[in-house]
Amino acid sequence: MSCTRLGLSLLLLAALGWTEDEHGSEDSSHPKKKGPGHGHWSYADKDEWPLEFPDCGGQMQSPINIDTNSTIFSHELQPVVLAGYNLDPSERLSLMNNGHTVVLRLPGSLTIASGYPQEYRAMQLHLHWGSPEGPGSEHTVDGRRYDGEIHVVYYNPSSGSIKEAMRQPGGLAVLAAFLQVGPEDNVHYQPLLEQLHKVQEEGTERTVAGFNIEGLLPTNLSRYYRYSGSLTTPPCYQTVNWTVFNQTVLLSKEQISLLETTLQGDDDKDLQNNFRLTQSLHGRKVLANFQASLSPRRVPLPDDGVPPVTPAPDGATERSTAEAPGSDGSDAPVTPALEDTAGGSTDKAPEEGAGCPPCADSEKQLGFALQTAEVLAGLFGVLFAVTALAFLIYIYKQQSQNRRPDSHPKPNVIYTAATTDENAA
Questions:
Q1: Between vectors from CA 361 to CA 340 and to CA 342, what angle results, nearest 5°?
Q2: Among 3, 35, 169, 229, which one has the highest count of C-beta atoms within 10 angstroms of its own C-beta?
Q3: pLDDT at 421 (0 to 100)
Q4: Rounded distance between C-alpha atoms, residue 66 and residue 319, angstroms
Q5: Where does the signal peptide begin and end (predicted)?
Q6: pLDDT at 274
């Protein structure tokens, strides 16, 4: 009898372990119950992740700092096109607080129709955020950290299963977009945010009605960065094709605050600052399908009591205790125009190029370039006129010098007819 119970227990443990692996991609929705607190890892001990998860110490880790001056333009990167994202309200989705983030399970019918050479099917989406003291995106652009970040995780079905895809190069893909404070509520995020209080405690799960998942992403999916990296949470598998959109998504300050103050994580503490620090590129290339900014702007990156440090040239993490511009929506130099950010009013026409992390500097540089071009055009016009005048003077002088010195004009002579007397003589 005891042997039978032991066998059943082992089978149950094996099944639970398989379930964890099967859905363990980038913030599993089924956390293990071991170790300190309620989770098997935490953001408080990020430096210790490689001890239990060796891939976390690899050479292709995520997130990274995107140095726009170092990106490589690639015309082969096609605009991202999504299919099947407008879900009917009758479809029920699982929403869970796994102690590290809030996870929304997605049906496999959601696919990426264009933008990758291989097929990818959706698995889940989750969010990363900071705290009232500072922003919490995982990726940074030219040293700037944004208020939050959304990740939509996909797997390649040709791998056979999610478990296999997680371990194969290119087996996973993540679409990432920055969240930023805007002037009004983002209606597309309300179906998700209004359910947070129902999953406040770690491990709680609820079902929510289907809605337009594509509305959670930027309206412009044609401009993005692409690089090879990893899951940003343990087990940190280095099998992810990352797409980081250039356009940000606007949420109101109240919506960002709801993210930062509603959920609880380990030991019933507020679930805040659930982001990993940026990792070294180790020679990796970051591609872009548009011309990125030529004038990067670096701003302090806040952290929990860590003093400012000199930025590493390879994009390693830099943090500061100061509040970063943009965390309260007051960062005028880089706040995008509302018309080209996802969120806010949907009746405003988008304007190409606005509402993206490096675009403010690009517009300034473009204006300066146009002014310089106008000045140069004026100078070239004056130079051409002077050259033409000098050429005409030269031709005139040459003609004058070619005249003979003895060719003086002869006086006019008037001949009169001879008289009769003069003829007789």
A1: 15
A2: 229
A3: 47
A4: 15
A5: 1-19
A6: 97
Arithmetic mean of pLDDT, 309-324:
32
> Does residue 1 lie within any of the structural domains?
no
Q: What is the mean pLDDT of residues 96-103?
A: 97
Q: Containing H/E element for 191?
A: helix 190-193
The domain containing residue 131 runs over which residues?
Answer: 22-370
Q: Check residues 167 and 356 and name the one with the higher pLDDT.
A: 167
User: Higher pLDDT residue, 402 or 129?
Assistant: 129
**Contacts of residue 400, Cβ cutoff 8 Å, sequence gap at least 6:** none
Q: Which residues are catalytic?
A: 100
Q: How far apart are CA 107 and CA 90, in angstroms?
A: 13
Q: What's the token pair of residue 209?
A: 């009605």
Least confident of 17-31, 141-155, 332-346, 400-414: 332-346
368: buried, middle or exposed (CB in 10 Å: 19+, 13-18, 0-12)? Answer: exposed
Is pLDDT of 232 > 90? Answer: yes
The structural domain count of the chain equals 1
Beta bridge partners of 205: 96
Strand stretches in 98-168, DSSP E:
102-105, 111-114, 121-129, 140-141, 144-145, 148-155
pTM of the model: 0.66
Q: Which two tokens stand for residue 196?
A: 């947070």
Tell me the longest C-alpha to C-alpha distance in the chain: 175
| In-domain check, residue 407 | no
Distances (CA, A) of 9 to 15, 40, 253: 10, 21, 48
Q: Kindly report each contact of residues 316-323 with a partner whose C-beta sits within 8 Å and lies 24 or more positions away, as own/partner.
A: 316/65, 316/278, 316/279, 316/280, 317/65, 317/277, 317/278, 317/279, 318/65, 318/143, 318/278, 319/277, 323/133, 323/134
- CATH (domain of 141): 3.10.200.10
The separation between CA 266 and the C-alpha centre of its own chain, rounded to angstroms, equals: 30
